[in-house]
Amino acid sequence: MSEPAGAAYYAPMSTSVTRLGRQLNNIFRPSGKVFYGWWIVLACAGVQWLAALTWMHSYGGYALKLQADFGWSMSVLSLAFALTRLESGLLGPLQGWLVDRYGPRRILIIGTVIFSIGFFVFSLVESITTYFVAFILIALGSSLGGFATLMVSIVSWFDAHRAKAIAMSQIGFSAGGLCVPFVMMGLEAFGWRSMALYSGILILVLGIPLVSLVRHRPEDYGEVPDGVRADGEEAESDQLKRSQSQVSLTWQQAIREPSFWLISTGHGLSLLTVSSMLAHLIPYLTFDLGYEPVNAGFVFALMTAVQMGGLFLGGIIGDRFDKRIICTLCMMGHFVGLIALTYGAQPSLVLLFALAHGLAWGVRAPLMVALRADYFGPKSFGTIMGISSLIVMIGMTLGPLFSGVMFDIYGNYNLAFTSIAFCSLAGGLCFWFAKPPKLIAEQGLQDSDAEAHHL
To answer: Structure pTM?
Structure first.
């Protein structure tokens, strides 16, 4: 009896599904159960969702309300946001040392409590002084309880799947952006004071349980990076040799490498763009293009939805291709997006901005951590990231402040956004010239020679 015609079609499909299932099992359940590192990734995603929802993505909406209530200029409002980025950067070296010394979980719990208190103070603001105090607390808490601290844990728990893990953890940040329209509706319905109060409560109720799941190093819990254990004595010996041969630079060695400064500068210029959009996209769409605040929130949500897709793409291609080249292309994407936004009142060009900027941001974001981990290793990663933040903070600080001042002087954002767009191109050159450190390059050659000799 002849085989049914559909069988020939479904057989390859069944094989592909089986192969995909096997690959996913190898990634997420390498030893028969879900690797604990992925639970850490999930917790990190939840923490970043909280920070994005309540603070980073919602700031533009709060700025509109504060300006309406108090009549403060965009320069003053931007200065507070810029100072919070400055504080986070200055805190970086000490924060990195504390995380390397005491582990991320303790620092995350302290940061989450301070972050929540900052919102409680923010809900009581009646003057510029109280406003700045609230923002300093919010910045301190979000820094200690946020991205840099979380990444130390992920870098320690993953090696082969590091870019994917970082990308998946940052999906929470993008998901927070998708919720911006609801935040804008809440600001309209309940007012900014009530929203700030609710945010403080939400951070405590959800944040503390989430950060309690984070662990420092897998070896302390009887695990290994990626959860992949070697089989047999010979395999275990090979795994030990690979572990011992993995190069990890001290922070003193790292800062002597040109790539450290080039990556830090490129990262700072990329965040010049990102922080400007976080603080000023909604005001720009409202003041310059005449959008209603809720509609501006939907554009913001579209941008972050594209960013979320970019995170998936960045996690996949970042583990397969040269991260340095990918980052260079992403900086060109930032440039195209900002130029389209600045000179495009048409909805089609606003859409182009959301696509180009969002995709570039999403693909590039996980590679900022993964590229440093590849170049400098995991052992002193917290301290290296902390020192790097001193440079990165310049972009995070100047972007919102420069945009706010230019708006107050000229009444629009054209000059500010154009200048920042060209800074993105300069950042692309930084990534292009950021070659691996000498120790890493030499190790790569030794590994290649050893493999060739083995063959």
So the answer is: 0.71
